[in-house]
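Propose amino acids for all 529 sites.
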């Protein structure tokens, strides 16, 4: 029987660059009872209450990047913890075996997409918080209750899963079977053919449209689900030996020829699509798109990688597209969110790589887990949290793989859609995975309601483009669309960068990680790249 679900949340001093935020309130909701703990020892008070409660799954949203770092002494007792991409996804408390989990791993969105109360965080300051205790407590309770609603509903619909990717893959495996790859087969495909989305700047700086034109931002509706649904993808192991001829079973190939902004080349700073000539490793979907649009002149086919079995994933995509649409029609806000993320999250799971997986264990700073006679045992990784804890790790030796060829084919199909669209774009300025900013996009299907069709999202008359994922589109004085990945710049600051100036950004929220003894604070100087 599944354990009961509790939710927890911690309130701290307001974030301010270089000020370590200390907790002053902690909320705990069991579904039946609400507890709030106030004061500098709120974490200890909450722990004492948890020790009195039956074992449960205790969720905190983004807890693995924040809240859990105040709770290290709950789990620092030779306890194995699951860490994925620097996030504590699961840890077990000692004495009473509660599972501390980060709900962001199954619901990778801000709570405000479901429900979220508003509050002025200035009332969290030490000198004002007691006077605002009632308001803060109400806010804290709502967050815990809303999170509890989401976590319970997620388990009711999909079962007990640790991540959204694992949930999505489990749902897909109900409909499809596929072969898994050996390490050798994985190596044959992963390095040469598995790339991410296409991000490219065609012009930079302060850009104005041609006289009589405007700058338009087009988005491709559900790019990856459409690529999964419409294109065939390999689901078997690759043939032992590559061939020299393209067949109906070919999914990847190495070619030599002239490239007119179609195929990627990998470098230290990312993918480049403007290499004019050379040898390229591409999916069959990209090759077909480039040949049909005249964006690649093939001189030689070096080798082709063939697969006995392939499929489209139309049943999976249609199932979750329909579930999401029905949820929206019937006011099922939770379902609409869940079905969106489950439907979009399994293509990356195909390409998961266990080579860098580790087992992690957390102890106090007095414990030695590293006997010299056990080379495969745990070895110290770093001090963790604020002080007094050691994170240990050992190689996982996992051999569990899915099929990187499937993932590489899906991402290749998505890039092929960009090749075809860019071939019909008038003055392309910028593209990012499933969007294009240009003056006009012709001869492509445009319908905001249909999967795989393009939609006109925004229109402007000035575009400030400083580099990949750094831009601002203006309609008059109003910024209608912007991005500044890794930093949070204003639209005016982006304009300054695009004029050649440097802008310094300081993150107020702390970053907790396994390489520091305390919270670290990010400061970055942003320049046009």
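Proposal:
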């Amino acid at each position: 029987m599944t354990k009961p679900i509790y939710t927890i949340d911690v309130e701290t001093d307001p974030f301010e660059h270089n000020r370590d935020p200390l907790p002053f309130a902690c909320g705990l909701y069991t579904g039946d009872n609400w507890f709030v703990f106030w004061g500098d020892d709120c974490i200890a008070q909450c722990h004492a209450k948890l020790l009195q409660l039956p074992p449960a799954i205790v969720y905190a949203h983004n807890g693995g990047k924040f809240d859990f770092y105040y709770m290290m002494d709950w789990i620092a007792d030779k306890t194995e913890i699951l860490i994925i991409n620097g996030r504590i996804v699961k840890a077990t408390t000692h004495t009473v075996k509660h599972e501390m989990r980060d709900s962001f791993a199954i619901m990778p969105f801000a709570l405000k997409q479901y429900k979220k109360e508003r509050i002025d965080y200035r009332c969290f300051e030490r000198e004002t918080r007691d006077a605002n205790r009632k308001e803060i407590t109400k806010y804290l309770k709502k967050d815990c209750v809303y999170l509890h609603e989401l976590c319970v509903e997620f388990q009711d619909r999909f079962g007990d899963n640790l991540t959204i990717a694992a949930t999505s893959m489990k749902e897909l495996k109900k409909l499809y079977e596929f072969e898994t790859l050996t390490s050798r087969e994985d190596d044959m495909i992963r390095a040469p053919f598995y790339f991410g989305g296409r991000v490219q700047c065609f012009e930079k700086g302060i850009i104005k449209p041609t006289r009589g034109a405007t700058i338009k931002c087009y988005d491709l509706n559900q790019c990856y689900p459409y690529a999964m649904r419409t294109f065939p993808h390999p689901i078997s192991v690759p043939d032992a030996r590559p061939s020299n001829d393209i067949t109906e079973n070919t999914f990847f190939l190495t070619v030599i020829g002239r490239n007119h902004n179609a195929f990627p080349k990998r470098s230290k700073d990312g993918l480049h699509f403007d290499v004019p000539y050379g040898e390229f490793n591409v999916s069959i979907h990209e090759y077909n798109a480039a040949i049909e649009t005249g964006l690649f002149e093939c001189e030689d086919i070096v080798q082709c990688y063939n697969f006995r079995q392939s499929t489209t994933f139309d049943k999976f995509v249609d199932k979750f597209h329909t579930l999401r649409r029905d949820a929206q029609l019937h006011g099922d806000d939770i379902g609409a969110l869940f079905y969106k993320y489950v439907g979009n999250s399994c293509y990356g799971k195909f390409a998961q790589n266990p080579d860098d997986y580790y087992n992690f264990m957390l102890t106090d700073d007095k414990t030695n887990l590293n006997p010299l006679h056990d080379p495969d045992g745990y070895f110290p990784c770093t001090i963790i949290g604020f002080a007094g804890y050691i994170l240990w790790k050992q190689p996982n030796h996992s051999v569990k793989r899915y099929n990187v060829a499937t993932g590489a084919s899906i991402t290749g199909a998505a890039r092929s859609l960009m090749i075809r669209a860019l071939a019909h774009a008038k003055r392309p300025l910028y593209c990012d995975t499933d969007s294009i900013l240009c003056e006009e996009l012709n001869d492509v299907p445009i319908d905001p309601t249909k999967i795989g069709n393009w939609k006109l999202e925004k229109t402007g008359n000035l575009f400030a483009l400083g580099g990949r994922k750094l831009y601002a589109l203006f309609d008059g004085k109003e910024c209608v669309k912007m991005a500044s990945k890794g930093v949070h710049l204003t639209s005016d600051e982006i304009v300054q960068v695009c004029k050649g100036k440097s802008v310094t950004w300081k993150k107020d929220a702390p970053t907790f990680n396994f390489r520091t003894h305390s919270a670290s604070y990010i400061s970055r100087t942003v320049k046009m790249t």
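The mean pLDDT is 91. The first helix runs from residue 42 to 50.
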